[in-house]
Amino acid sequence: MAEINIKKVISIALETGRIMLANGAEVYRVEETIERMIVSKHSAPVNVFVVSTGIIVSTEIDGDPYTVVDRTPSTSLDLEVISRANAFSRLFTDDDMTEEHAEIILQGLRNHPRFPDWVRYLFSGAAGGFFVLLSGGTFIEFLSAYIASALVVMFSDTLTKENMNFFIKNISGGLMAAGLALVTVLFLRLFGIFASYNHIVVGPLMTLVPGVALTNGIRDLISGELIAGSVKIMEALFIAIALAFGVGVVLQLSLAIIGDLSWI
Fold first, then answer.
1. Which terminus of the chain is more solvent-facing, meaning fewer CB atoms within 10 Å of its CB: N or C?
2. Model confidence over 163-182: pLDDT tens digits?
3. String of DSSP letters for the chain
4. pLDDT tens sequence across 200-214
5. pTM of the full predicted structure?
């Protein structure tokens, strides 16, 4: 850049970090990316503080303090977007990229192409179904878990679009997963087909288990991000509690209505 607008550089770096954080990147990675992008164009000290729901950037411009705060809740998980944003940050750091060029790339990151919903549901079903096979389930249990997993992910997406509280959303997901598994087992019994409730319910539940949040939390803790890491681990813990609560409600209601459930 011939004439560097430091505020614009900070805005570009902040937007890059926001995109990464919103798509599930680790906090330490977001901090390093933002700091590296600003320092490559600015000689003053830069301080970047990131938690799972926000970013704070502080530096000096012409001797005056300058601070930017951006609230950025994590809304999805997209490793491809994280990879593209990381690659863009390295290009921005290493090359004399113009502000206009940087904005064009950022716009592409904001509006990146996504897989159609039917593709996501198709492979979400496969993820849950094949987990049943890994745990020793039969083909009919695999097929049941496949359908239940796809429906649970579809239901979870609907609640996400409605901005449902994450705790309530996961309770609802657990309720639906357990309810679909129970209804499937009862329906198959009508035709003399015996299927294990435990095998079927584990499929749709695995599509909701917060494995990435837990892994990112541990990686942040290892990197010294104690607050962000603890928050991620607590988020994963509360999601697990919500799922267990949803399944427990279905089992208790079934026990009250049907009675002995040992046969499922």
1. N
2. 888 889 999 999 999 999 99
3. --S--HHHHHHHHHHHHHHHHHTT--HHHHHHHHHHHHHTT--S--EEEEETTEEEEEEEETTEEEEEEEE-------HHHHHHHHHHHHHHHHS---HHHHHHHHHHHHT-----HHHHHHHHHHHHHHHHHHTT--HHHHHHHHHHHHHHHHHHHHHHHTT--HHHHHHHHHHHHHHHHHHHHHHHHHTT----HHHHHHHHHHTT--HHHHHHHHHHHHTT-HHHHHHHHHHHHHHHHHHHHHHHHHHHHHHHHH---TT-
4. 999 999 989 888 888
5. 0.78
